[in-house]
Design brief:
alpha/beta, Rossmann fold, 7-stranded parallel sheet, two-stranded parallel sheet, 11 helices, 16% strand
């Protein structure tokens, strides 16, 4: 059984990916210091898979503490690195904190890869690296534009760190997954998006408004150059996204990679506006949503959606769920909470 380290393992995407890894026969250990999550999801993971995952509450910017986890677990076969601060608005207000956390944690993980001879890393990147792209849909070769937030810049810089290391360390293998807008929850309703801080992502904001945790929600911007004036995003179900990470890891572990660094977009390939997402939720839930239109939000990109053809050809991956599935599972999760 191959052993995989998942950083940020009790976070939203990390916890769902752990489920997919376990269901595909991997042994998993987690590092997460709970800056924006709790250990509660480990109970849900155990109920779904029948396996209890060990989490280490380590700050990855602490190199010695990070090295200690590797010492305790010799023979790690691969790493999926999710751990990062990710709130766009917060990054605008606290850029130094984001640079310190997101970059130093990656540097320490790569340092441990080299020290403990771990060959494979899947890096959690983001469509935010494209900025306000000059072409849609974006491909992996679409030129990167100016980052719209410090968060996005940390992802651009993280990708560059991996690229520069891969150039001189041929024994290391990287896949950089640029994914679009993860949303939804596990179909069981046992795990979902449950940040310890007030969420700012669209789908949990919609479900919190519908259930009454928020009086109303705001659609940021109404006169963008889009079909209804609101921002366009490519929403991908979190379990489809989780499976792509498993497939990327399997691709490296089986030696199928022709290069020691690849970049892959993960998205459905269709753009959905904020107002269309609200309508999809109202349709599947039967709830009428109380929302208002406000001014644009600093750091937001106008429109971005993926060309997922490389993921399909290289990993054999295709998303199985649509925006209605996202809203249905997210609403079921919110009601369970």
């Amino acid at each position: 059984m191959q052993k995989i380290l998942v950083t940020g393992g009790t976070g939203y995407i990390g916890s769902h990916t752990i489920v997919d890894l376990l269901q595909n026969g991997f042994e998993v250990i987690s590092i997460d210091n709970h800056l924006n999550s709790t250990d509660d999801c480990l109970d849900g993971i155990e109920q779904i898979t029948g396996k209890r995952v060990k989490n280490y509450p380590v700050d990855l910017t602490d190199l010695e503490a990070t090295r200690e986890v590797f010492r305790n677990h010799p023979g790690i076969d691969g790493i999926i690195h999710f751990a990062a601060l990710k709130l766009v608005g917060e990054s605008v207000e606290q850029p130094l904190r984001y640079f310190h956390n997101n970059l130093n944690s990656l540097l320490n993980i790569i340092s441990c890869m080299q020290a403990f001879e771990v060959s494979h890393l899947i890096f959690s990147s983001s469509c935010s690296v494209y900025g306000n792209a000059q072409e849609l849909p974006v491909t992996e070769n679409t030129p990167l534009q100016q980052a719209e937030s410090p968060y996005a810049r940390t992802k651009q810089m993280g990708e560059q760190i991996c690229t520069d290391v891969a150039r001189i360390a041929q024994e290391l293998n990287f896949i950089l997954l640029r994914y679009f807008n993860p949303a939804g929850a596990h179909e069981s309703g046992l795990i979902g998006e449950a940040p310890s801080k007030r969420p700012s992502n669209l789908v949990p904001v919609i479900t919190e408004t519908a259930i009454g945790k928020r009086d109303s929600m705001t659609v940021f911007g109404s006169d963008y150059d889009t079909r209804d004036g609101s921002c366009v995003r490519d929403y991908i179900h979190v379990m489809d996204l989780a499976n792509a990470h498993t497939r990327a890891l399997q691709h490296l572990l089986s030696g199928k990679n022709e290069h020691n660094l690849d970049i892959i977009n993960l998205g459905i390939g269709e753009g959905v506006t904020v107002l269309e997402a609200i309508k999809a939720f109202e349709s599947v839930s039967g709830q009428s949503l109380n929302y208002k239109v406000g001014p644009p939000r600093p750091g937001d990109v106008i429109a971005v959606y993926a060309d997922p053809s490389k993921a399909q050809s290289m990993l054999g991956w295709r998303p199985e769920r649509n925006i209605e599935d996202i809203m249905r599972t997210a609403w079921a999760w919110q009601q369970q909470l």
